[in-house]
Amino acid sequence: MGLEKFSPDKTIFQDENVLRDSYTPDQLICRDDELAQYQSALRPVINGAQPKNIFLYGDAGLGKTLATELVLDRLRTDQEDYDHLDLHTVSLVCKTLSSSYQVAANLVNEFRPPEEQIKATGYPAGMVYNMLWEHLNDLDATHCLIVLDEVDSIGKDDDILYELPRCNDNGNVDDTLVGVIGISNNFTFRDNLSARVKDSLCDDEIHFPPYDANQLRQILEQRAEKAFHENVLEGDVIPLCAAFAGQKYGSARQALKRLYKSGDLARDENDSMVREAHVRAADRIVEKDKIMAELSQIPTQEKLTLYGLLKLDEQDRTPAKRSHVYEQYTIAAKRIDAQVVSDRTVHDSLSKLTLKGFLDVNEKNEGPHGGSYYEYSFSIRPDLAREVLSEDSRLASLGE
User: Where are any strands of DSSP class E within the chain?
Assistant: First the structure.
């Protein structure tokens, strides 16, 4: 069968870009409280005062980055009405950066043309910081706000989060008032910051909670109006996308992915409508893609621990004690000639899998004679976990 002729979509999508992560809507709905907090925290800038250092936290897809873009755009526009202000902003996504040194080097490059950029290795840390202070001092601006998105990627190496917020107080930068906005998808990152960083960075903290299904429905309706042709969505499509995403994630990103994939499936089938069946198929595809992306990053020992719980789930023995998981883990590890680690190490793996959202854990207490223990079960669909693990070359033989 030969290739069909490409032709524009005239039935389902009007502008599918509206459903992509890269699209910035004119308005962030269902975040009025967070936007009000954000504007309040930035008000010192419009007064010509030292900026506050702000820390935003909450899971991915909750509007933190979009809120930052919208609030800073508004601040840049409004500051033009005041002669005493000249605001400069720098935004850096730290997802691929694992140290304060790398963040500092990349910030230096934000101020430099391509031919003068420095490498992310090879310089003494103090020299890189001095380069950064020099660029900030050379700015023809009264204020500079530095946004560090996904800053949790740097882990425990949080020196940059001490140096930047204090660069004015320490005399490193004199002519420009500097403020830092840290954005994290990891709740525990904020708690694990060193005491000196908490004192410096967290002048104001803004928590972005998960959206509920009703809020997700409103967000999808806002996007769908521009994304789809009129009257192509069956009445239960948006509520179902919102329910699937709201039940587990509370994430607008996850809801939009399901709506976009539903439209894709309808288009591929040459259907004139997006229907409930498309949403259910889309949910499975999106969920599998998400699980695959996350599972591909975990080490073999954690995958074997997950496989042990899968075997118990197949036998209707979940929620399961750690000791039962360890029995199944040991069998699986021996079958693929992997090192059999201790029960304690498997316990650590179970804890990590729980933190990553793959598992649920409940504490059981059977009194003075039975004692207390933890039971583990899946928070993701076991069949999807099984399917993804079966595609791991080392674990594939376990399904035989």
Answer: 54-57, 87-93, 143-149, 177-184, 204-207, 320-321, 359-365, 372-378
Quote the pTM value: 0.80
pLDDT digits (tens, 9 = 90+) for 290-347: 888 888 888 899 999 999 999 999 999 999 999 999 999 999 999 999 999 999 999 9
Average pLDDT over every residue of 10-28: 93
Please give the angle made by the CA atoms of 209, 214 and 216, to the nearest 5 degrees.
Answer: 65
Burial class (CB in 10 A: 0-12, 13-18, 19+), 316: exposed
Gap between the Cα atoms of 263 and 10, Å rounded: 12
Class of domain 211-295: mainly alpha
Sign of the Cα torsion 240, 245, 250, 253 reads negative
The residues pairing with 177 across neighbouring beta strands, listed in sequence order, are: 143
Report the pLDDT value the prediction gives residue 1, as an integer from 0 to 100.
57
Domain boundaries, the chain: 32-207, 211-295, 300-399
Residue 218 pLDDT = 97
Segment 72-87 mean pLDDT: 93
Rounded to the nearest 5°, which phi and psi values hold at 88? Answer: -120, 140
Decide if domain 300-399 falls under CATH 2.60.200.20: no
Tens-digit pLDDT profile for residues 117-169: 998 888 899 999 999 999 999 998 999 999 999 998 888 888 999 999 999 99
Instruction: Compute the distance between CA of residue 384 and CA of residue 175 in angstroms, rounded to an integer.
Output: 56
32-207 to CATH, choices 3.30.70.2190, 3.40.50.300, 1.10.10.10, 3.30.1360.70: 3.40.50.300
Q: Write down the residue that tokens 């928070």 correspond to.
A: 379
Where helices occur in 98-157 by DSSP H, the ranges are 100-110, 125-138
Strand arrangement of the beta sheet that strand 177-184 belongs to = 87-93, 143-149, 177-184, 54-57, 204-207
pLDDT for 175 equals: 87
Task: Give the pairing of strands 372-378 and 359-365.
Answer: antiparallel
Rounded to the nearest 5 percent, the helix, strand and coil shares of the chain are: 50, 10, 35
Mean residue pLDDT across the chain: 91
> 277 is written with which tokens?
């069946």
User: How does residue 191 score in pLDDT terms, banded at 50, 70 and 90?
Assistant: confident
**Burial class, 174, CB count within 10 angstroms (exposed 0-12 / middle 13-18 / buried 19+):** exposed
